[in-house]
Amino acid sequence: MRVFVDCDPGIDDALALAYLAACADVEIVGVGTVYGNNSVEITTDNALRLLALYGRPEVPVAAGAGRPLVQPPNLAGHVHGENGLGGVRAPEPTARPVDESAAELLVRLVRESPGEIDVLAVGPLTNLALALALEPRLPELAGRVVVMGGAVQAPGNVTAWAEANIMNDPEAAEAVLGAGFDLSLVALDVTMRTLAGGRWLDDLAAVAGERAEYTHRFLDFYVGFYESVLGERACAMHDPLAAAILVNPELMVVESVSVPVRVELNGAHTRGATVADLRPRPRADDRPAVTLVTEVDADGFLKRMLDALR
Ligand code: BDR
Ligand code: CA
Questions:
Q1: What is the pLDDT of residue 197?
Q2: What is the pLDDT of residue 20?
Q3: pLDDT of residue 147 exceeding 90
Q4: How many angstroms separate the alpha carbon of residue 239 from the centre of ligand 1?
Q5: Alpha carbons 235 and 164: distance in angstroms, whole number
Q6: Which of 32, 137, 157, 178 is buried most deeply by CB count within 10 Å?
Q7: What residues contact residue 161 under an 8 Å CB cut-off, 6+ apart?
Q8: Whose atoms come closest to the Cα of 76: which ligand?
Q9: Which segments constitute the Inosine/uridine-preferring nucleoside hydrolase domain (predicted)?
Q10: pLDDT at residue 283, as a whole number
Q11: Residues 80, 118, 216, 238: which is the catalytic one?
Q12: Residues 231-246, mean pLDDT to the nearest whole number
């Protein structure tokens, strides 16, 4: 399969890239970067370093949006460290970003190979919204789209209601979720139940080799943050879970529902909330439905994630 990754690396973004890079049947056709966990300059530099580390230095990296469509960005140095990778200096990049923007690269790739390019979006959705503005037929031209974002029944992580990727650009997220993509939403509802705990981290520490060693060092800072949230030595595997769901939905997804999901744009307390109509008999709705993943094989994923780093 051919995959375009839009990301803001970011420690869990790094794991998503590691996961995809380890899948022999996945061709990463391009990586777009976006502000989010850090500035777009830093996430772009990190993407180049990570692709070199994980053995895919040839993948074109296109720098994307430096800010959301409407509001100022809200960066997450307290979760991912001052350089986005837990303060760890990853190996030097072996390439430079391409001249196109992330949105331009995505649009060109899907026009060249209609229906063949799947998209993994694990950062704020600004680049996808910009790509939609450049090419309104994007939902027909792209293959499957998996988005890590939102909190439907689970609590948010930046506010009581909103998850970071959606909250960083609610207008972009609202446009993308309503555009008619064949889209699966991997929200905190499942990612906060897919935790890499102490035992998994110890198993990773025992894996030899540069990739596993660096990844374990990146995770140190991230686990420190999650420990303060969860009260245990563990961390949430948001972005790599979304990657695994893109590659092997039949193995990873235990349960899902097809529902329209809207993003609250106005609420005084609920801006950025992802609102799904989960009533047993929802009213007819002309908004296109997305697949909301509601149950995953967390243990199966954690095993595969570890194998990917071996
Ligand atoms: C999402 O926000 C970012 O901090 C992570 O990389 C992930 O994509 C989780 O809310
Ligand atoms: Ca991310």
A1: 96
A2: 98
A3: yes
A4: 7
A5: 16
A6: 32
A7: 151, 155, 264, 267, 269, 270, 272, 273
A8: 1
A9: 3-302
A10: 83
A11: 238
A12: 98
What's the average model confidence in pLDDT over 218-243?
97
99 included as an active-site residue: no
**Is the per-residue pLDDT at 280 higher than 90?**
no
Judged against a pLDDT cut of 90, whether residue 281 lies above it is answered with no
Residues with CB under 5 A from ligand 2 (ion): 8, 10, 13, 122-123, 239
Overall average pLDDT of the 64-82 stretch: 96
Q: Is the per-residue pLDDT at 202 higher than 90?
A: yes
**For residue 284, is pLDDT > 90?**
no
Judge whether 8 counts as a catalytic residue: yes
- Residue 275 CB: number of other CB atoms within 10 A? 16
Query: What's the pLDDT tens digit per position in 119-132?
Result: 999 999 999 999 99
Which of 46, 85, 148 is the pocket-test mutation for ligand 1 (most atoms within 8 Å of CB)? 148
From 7, 12, 168, 189, give the residue whose CB has the most ligand 1 atoms within 8 Å, as the site to mutate.
12
**What does the block give as tokens for 26?**
């996945």
Which residue ranges have their beta carbon within 6 Å of ligand 1?
10, 12-13, 37, 76, 79, 122, 148, 157, 163-165, 238-239
Exactly one of 6, 8, 118, 169 is catalytic; which is it?
8
